[in-house]
Amino acid sequence: MGVEIRRRKRWEELKQANQIVGGRCQGRGFVHGGFVTHCRSSSLAEAMMTECQLVLLPNDGDQIINARLTGEDLKIGVEVEKGPLVMTAMDLTEPAIEAILSVLKPHFILAVKTAMDENGEVGKQVKDNHDIQREILLMKQGLESSYIYGFVHNLHDLLKL
Questions:
Q1: Which of 60, 63, 59, 78 is nearest to 123 (CA)?
Q2: Residue 132 contacts residue 56 (beta carbons within 8 Å)
Q3: Which of 79, 100, 101 is nearest to 88 (CA)?
Q4: Residue burial 43-65, b: 16+ Cβ < 10 Å; e: rest
Q5: Coil, helix or strand at residue 37
Q6: CATH T-level topology, domain 3-160
Q7: Three-state SS at 93
Q8: d(Cα 145, Cα 140) in Å, to the nearest integer?
Q9: Does the pTM of the predicted model rise above 0.85?
Q10: Cβ-based neighbours of 71, under 8 Å, separated by 6 or more
């Protein structure tokens, strides 16, 4: 059985078992009220607009940088830790994929539990920071408008000198 067929079959099994809520598109999905994102800029922007806790699962390139900024600097999500096997795996044969998934699974579960635990220190901090960032993005005036307003205000202050 091919890898893609097995993935689809496993996805359907998880959906039927109510382990996954919602859909999956471009590498993101909802898991128990959390939003799993691969951290491309558009996926991350969409994730930040939700009220879900963010679980960050980057693959490569800018996704890793975006995940570190989101998880470590802004503290609005929990990144799934990946071992050296996952980070250096170039062999995408079926046994290699199974090995990667077996290594990644406990780290993924831990990240989801950490992000979803609103009584835990990290979960509470992530939720609070995410709420603040979402409000900034959704504010009535709009983020871009606020930059323009601030720029114009600063110009007026300069002209008063």
A1: 78
A2: no
A3: 100
A4: bbeebbeeebbbbbbbeeeebbe
A5: strand
A6: Rossmann fold (3.40.50)
A7: coil
A8: 10
A9: no
A10: 56, 77, 78, 79
The answer for residues whose C-beta is within 8 angstroms of residue 122's C-beta and 6 or more apart is 78, 114, 115
Give me the phi and psi of 25, to 5 degrees please.
Answer: -150, 130
The parts of the chain modelled with pLDDT lower than 70 are: 1-33, 83-93, 97, 140-144, 161
In tens, the pLDDT along 119-134 reads 999 999 999 999 998 8
Q: Record the tokens describing residue 131, joined without a space.
A: 């709420």
Distance CA 118, CA 9 (A): 32
Distance separating alpha carbons of residues 152 and 103, to the nearest angstrom: 52
Give residue 105's pLDDT.
Answer: 86
CA–CA gap between residue 24 and residue 3 (Å, rounded) = 17
* CA distance linking residue 152 with residue 36, whole number of Å: 38
Alpha-helix residue ranges (DSSP H) falling in the chain: 3-16, 41-49, 62-68, 84-88, 94-116, 121-138, 143-160
- Structure tokens, 65: 């940088």
Q: Which two tokens stand for residue 24?
A: 């999956």
- Residue 36 near residue 60 (C-beta atoms within 8 A): no
**Which value, in Å, is the radius of gyration of the alpha carbons in the chain?**
19
What three-state secondary structure class fits 53? strand
